């Protein structure tokens, strides 16, 4: 029988991790191949041209466009300060003087004697990217960025908001069933990435941000709390750029959903470790998942990606549709023939043994692999 392929979230306790860190446009790479780097180290930088502003000097000073260059006190390339006089015109035989001040800090990019306009440009915006994870530079992309390699735990979530954060993992609950509440928070959570269980209350999430937490990782959240935290309804495009100080990662789904035991156990075993997280999520084409990376070294064998997408007996899967949404179990049967399901349609199914020992039959399209 041919293998069935089912994509899924990776939940690996100890694996080889490679992260590409690329600039948005050409710039300068600051590290070399083979160099050890910390997550916070800047590995590449560039500059994005500043915004431009068109100033109609001729119209503002009441002169002919051909006279613009003559009245300008600045030439192309000269720096300007906000409020600084950049042009002076003397009208009515010098009896009246009209001045024009720069509306921005920046420099003069061009002066046109045809249109009478001057283009001012704001200073360039510096863009720097860090390594994001502790590791080694294994590849350099000249002028673009690098690839960092490390070993450790790698966990993908279902959904997230907020950007990249580097902090200290702190497991705040005793069980993957526990709800993360304000009572679980320390007075000072500065730099911590807090792990809860099945749910986080809106109050706890806002309070965690107030107390300086860099991240919150839980099994589930409801729409109301998420909207209250972000300030608006989240769409289905790309997340990760929200104006929040605490990145939120949901490992299971929306609602009160127990965090997968394996995920919780991995996080619990690495309590206190330096951790890198990103809430960036893209649901549609070019799927992007929020991720948790905890670099460390161990004598245990590295987990490989060989056949990671093959649906086989013994593999862990997550059910991604009702009525069993969010439940996790082990594949125990793969019937070869299509089977009629409750909707009266005929499709290929599999039998999953849940963590409580119950066995259920679901369509193969309703599950995704958990990479162990």
3D structure, described in words:
This protein has three domains: 8-17 and 148-295, 3-Layer(bba) Sandwich (Glucose Oxidase, domain 1), CATH 3.50.30; 52-121, OB fold (Dihydrolipoamide Acetyltransferase, E2P) (Beta Barrel), CATH 2.40.50; 310-371, SH3 type barrels (Roll), CATH 2.30.30. It contains five helices and 33 strands. The protein has helices at residues 57-61, 68-71, 202-210, 223-230, 261-269, and strands at 4-5, 8-22, 28-29, 36-37, 42-48, 52-56, 79-80, 85-91, 96-101, 106-111, 117-121, 125-130, 135-141, 145-156, 159-161, 165-171, 179-180, 192-195, 199-200, 215-221, 238-239, 247-254, 274-278, 281-282, 291-295, 310-311, 316-319, 328-333, 339-340, 346-347, 349-354, 359-363, 367-371. It has a 16-stranded mixed beta sheet that branches. It has a four-stranded antiparallel beta sheet with strand order 6-11-10-7. It is elongated, with a radius of gyration of 28 Å. The model is unreliable at 1-6 (pLDDT under 50).
